[in-house]
């Protein structure tokens, strides 16, 4: 558990509480509950949370040695298998924590937003498990590209509310859920899906997710006798990133790499207000969105840009304020991987290790390929700074989620591209139809 | 012109429109129609792409305005081009103020706003805790900073807000986001009672739609009413029906008149202060 000052709503200049007045009492109430139940374990909250994470969630997840990748990259690669957590992604850690907290707080109803659907699925599962009514807001674009997860939320008993404003992705869904929360704040808890939003969400979500690095740290010591040299995690809003990094932040010899979605290009179309990427840490500017000061993809007037990634789960114009701060402090190195290389890595992990990763996770492996391997199109490793000249000899990669939800997107995107590593798609395409 | 002046003689009618909705020229005529209909101050929305405090009606207005090219610079031109004789309030979200100043925070925006004649700000996503830099800039250039009191606002937060508010206090009539409603919430009177001894005027907004609503709100002790969505609905209908410019302005002026008259009627029904 983190030891930073729980009362402090800021991470350096970032963070804070920029929300409509109607929500201020709710986030003050939540900050109080966070301190009592999460930090002080009042009424045995954390004991119950850990027990449910073990029995319902399936923790601890393994730290697996990756034979083929280790050989390919000539370094020991360990996989933190959050894809094996119940629901298929790290998201359950946070969803279970927050739904349980809502119960302790006496709330009667859960609302949440989701992009890729993983957070929505995890929240729906946690709500069913803890017998709480739940509504999940999801952009219509994301509903179309994440149908299996929409179905999973519904069969777990949650309502899925389509958000039709804007481009219908995560940023619109978050705004809409905040509006709904402002209307029903007295009996409803909003389960934010990442380390974003007003204080205490970034700290609280990080703490629920820090079980990832807590286990990974112990497991690495157990398996190798020491700490890893590098930890690699993909970063959208940043919940799996902060979860994977949190317990290593004070270990200054452990390099932390946050891999963002480079999309199709890092060049921004100011005229159209579109960033064809979601590389907020690498390319964003400071600003205020969804309750926090952080780095954002925005135009010169301060209007928030539409972001893009082949992975719906990374497709967000903001990022957690703590990550923005750690990047400014040069403790975390932000890097990015484009859609093509992420897809290539998706196929490599599937073929070499028998693990079909979420497209989010594939970005982390794309970075491994670029730095330590040879990307098939011959792209050289990007220039590295002194601190991160190369990977050391023990690299832990957070496998944040499994790729079942992304198979329709993977078929479509693979078909569009000429990837040497991809399987022969002709039969699938000849036969037509979906999965 | 200080915003308090709008409340000096009688209950104030403060309408809201998104500047530039559905386009620059028509929007100018709409705002001027509100002034002709009796507005005492006007809240002009500077559209932000993520308006988390707004309901669907104003969200759509913001999208129309942004699509028609509204920017902070155009907003300043808009204020300069307006021919009205009442105080103007800029209602927007903090990121636009903040980003305008780059490394200097909100100060350059406030300086420019003062230059073109803006009288103050309402920033729905800026609570008193984070408002220090904007408050300082407003003090430097003589502008007011309005805060919103919600039915859920705690006493400790009211105390914090009271130290920083100027111009008027915006009393949110009910929980939720902006949008016209068919009734008036009882929470209004309670909210007004909690801030009765504040020495700034109290203006009630959220959900007011008719002259009768205005009358009831003022009768319950408000110093003014703020109306947005009911007016934006008229702009929306005009836009959807092919933009009949004159008729929209006429309808806005007529509703403004009805709301102002309702507010005036409300003063007759106020309980008289007890003599001691």
Automatic annotation (TrEMBL), chain A:
E.C. code: 4.2.1.20
Cited Gene3D superfamilies: 3.40.50.1100
CDD domains per record: Trp-synth_B
Top-level EC class: lyase
Record domain Tryptophan synthase beta chain-like PALP: where: 57-374
Cofactor(s), names only, from the UniProt record: pyridoxal 5'-phosphate
Pathway participation: Amino-acid biosynthesis; L-tryptophan biosynthesis; L-tryptophan from chorismate: step 5/5
Alphabetized PROSITE patterns for the sequence: TRP_SYNTHASE_BETA (PS00168)
Alphabetically ordered keywords of this record: Amino-acid biosynthesis, Aromatic amino acid biosynthesis, Lyase, Pyridoxal phosphate, Tryptophan biosynthesis
Sequence positions bearing N6-(pyridoxal phosphate)lysine: 91
Pfam families: PALP (PF00291)
The keyword Lyase is assigned to this record: yes
Catalysed reaction, written as an equation: (1S,2R)-1-C-(indol-3-yl)glycerol 3-phosphate + L-serine = D-glyceraldehyde 3-phosphate + L-tryptophan + H2O
InterPro entries for the chain: Trp_synth_b_CS, Trp_synth_beta, Trp_synth_beta/beta-like, TrpB-like_PALP, TrpB-like_PALP_sf
UniProt GO molecular function: tryptophan synthase activity
The family this protein is said to belong to: Belongs to the TrpB family.
Purpose: The beta subunit is responsible for the synthesis of L-tryptophan from indole and L-serine.
Matching HAMAP family: Trp_synth_beta
Subunit structure: Tetramer of two alpha and two beta chains.
Protein name: Tryptophan synthase beta chain
Organism name: Haloarcula saliterrae
Organism phylogeny: Archaea, Methanobacteriati, Methanobacteriota, Stenosarchaea group, Halobacteria
Gene transcribed to yield this protein: trpB
TrEMBL record, chain B:
Pfam families: Trp_syntA
Top-level taxonomic group: Archaea
Pathway(s) where this gene product acts: Amino-acid biosynthesis; L-tryptophan biosynthesis; L-tryptophan from chorismate: step 5/5
PROSITE patterns: TRP_SYNTHASE_ALPHA
Molecular function via GO: tryptophan synthase activity
InterPro entries attached to this UniProt entry: Aldolase_TIM (IPR013785), RibuloseP-bd_barrel (IPR011060), Trp_synthase_alpha_AS (IPR018204), Trp_synthase_suA (IPR002028)
CDD domains tied to this protein: Tryptophan_synthase_alpha
Keyword set, alphabetical order: Amino-acid biosynthesis, Aromatic amino acid biosynthesis, Lyase, Tryptophan biosynthesis
Presence of the UniProt keyword Lyase in the record: yes
Documented EC number(s): 4.2.1.20
Catalyzed reactions: (1S,2R)-1-C-(indol-3-yl)glycerol 3-phosphate + L-serine = D-glyceraldehyde 3-phosphate + L-tryptophan + H2O
Active site: 43 (proton acceptor), 54 (proton acceptor)
Function in brief: The alpha subunit is responsible for the aldol cleavage of indoleglycerol phosphate to indole and glyceraldehyde 3-phosphate.
Subunit and interaction comment: Tetramer of two alpha and two beta chains.
Listed PANTHER family: TRYPTOPHAN SYNTHASE ALPHA CHAIN, CHLOROPLASTIC (PTHR43406:SF1), TRYPTOPHAN SYNTHASE, ALPHA CHAIN (PTHR43406)
Family as reported in the entry's similarity comment: Belongs to the TrpA family.
Name of protein: Tryptophan synthase alpha chain
Organism: Haloarcula saliterrae
Organism placement in taxonomy: Archaea, Methanobacteriati, Methanobacteriota, Stenosarchaea group, Halobacteria
